[in-house]
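Predict the assembly for these two chains.
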Amino acid sequence: MYEKDGEKYFIVDSHMHFWDASRENWVEGRENLAKGWIDCFYGYHKLAPDETHWDWYKYLKVSEDDLMRDVFEEGYVDKAIFQSTYLKYWYKDGFNTVEQNGAMLEKHPDKFIVNGRWDPRDGDAGLRQLEEDARRWNLKGVKLYTAEWHENGSRGWKLTDPEAYRFLEKCQELGITNIHAHKGPTIWPLNKDAFSAEDVDQAATDFPGLTFIIEHAGIPRIDDFAYMAVQEPNVYAGLSVVIGAHMHARPKTFARFMGELLFWVGEDRMTFGSDYNIWTPKWQVEGFVDWQMPDDEAFSDYPKLTTATKKKILGLNAAKLYGIEVPAECRLPEEPSIPEQPGQQLADESTPAGSQA
Amino acid sequence: MTLRDSVWQALGTVLDPEIDEPITELGFVTSCEVSDDGVAAVRLRLPTFFCAPNFSFLMVADAYDAVAAVEGVTRADVVLEDHHASTEINAGVAAHAGFVATFPGEADAELAELRRYFLVKAVVAGQDRVARPLVDAGAGPEELAALTLGSTPRSPALDRLRLRRAALGLSADDAAPLLIHPDGSGVGVALVPLHRRRARLTRAGLEANGELCTSILATRYAGTAGAG
């Protein structure tokens, strides 16, 4: 919990990792990919305030003590959600697998939630694994990394692939309702599909019982994401990377992103994620609670953030999605219904039923 | 103007297709040298090892074409460094192989469609760049919907918008409306508020991309200035 000016914020870090990018874990012959990947992350790490930077070796693999201190003791987080990410094409034992994350959950059952993963290219074996993981770790969510390279030569997949629909159906059946999809920087496929959010749009329409949390709010294509999300009530904006890469390094860009997301997606469908250990949560939580839309003329179209907005984004929205108990002192008075965000109103007014604006 | 200046100027016409800015201004040119016998050696670098190979290919190929077309250049030697697909891209561009032949079995189309996809965004975002000052000065939906390219006050943003529209094959003459949908049709008064918001959103995404790439490039190559 974070407390500032008499207000208490319940913090759910809904997107974080405990990764192993150490040299020992690099696949032989693919060292350049394993190193390239973590170097890429390290570039993002440097966008945080200077005093939070680590050296590259520490960044490869933090210890359990580091994580518990950074996230819970110093980072104010009440509940942290592991987003399992495999990348076994270049990390031998995986970047952070369900088993590795599950081991932490077993040691600290009140601190963590473990999200699973699946890959439609794994076929029936993948479906069986998902069932087993769901039973063992009581999965409520999965992280989908559509740009993952596969041993079969494929460099990515889409949510609308027929095989992917089998897995989404299985999620529905197993009560895994939170689908965190990475739609951020992509490499493959090599055509314009890599940059499209159309597959999320379609899947969200076809699976109204599932919630699709689009991590990084689609950055670097936040425009496609936001305009899609306005039309799909079960699509959320995951703020991992949105806060970490911009709030400190590019404050004006951050203001524009927040303004656009509040307009199109709305404060009830935005969730905080520190993306540990790209960055630590402490400076992000403190900074976000202190943050406000600038007064400049350039931002006059955008709303100011209220304390309630910040409480929802930092924890209450994710707590609802995952059924996490929130202490009474951190709750907000019940709202009769979630108000429509302004972008939704504008889109509705401008678009006669059945036609495309 | 020296031959090196001409080559540099040619590189200035090469755009990052997604950010819609010249590679020379984004700091993507590591070095640019021209030998006495007219061989232009250009080295390029990108913000990350995993930048999308299709964009990377486009920029290297465009740089190659632009440099090779400069009068006096006898050979263009354009190389992308520090990228996971450097080897394939450099070999493919040098051999004029095209994108599909460079990534056999992985790419299913040349990159014209991709280029088009991002040009459309440039045209949408460009409308906010032109219209925003007018709105700040009090222009309402009726006035905006009635504006043509010819009746809009001249500005660098307007010139650029005309160029991008022409590149897409959309009307760019004085009589054409300022506000258009990506298919070239005009925007009715009732749709102007939504259209403006979308244009603002697209512009925010585009400009933020440029900034993020610049930030990441700066940390990746801290202390090593690019060419200028």
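Chain A has 13 helices and ten strands. Strands of chain A lie at 2-4, 7-9, 12-16, 79-83, 112-115, 141-145, 178-182, 211-215, 235-238, 270-271.
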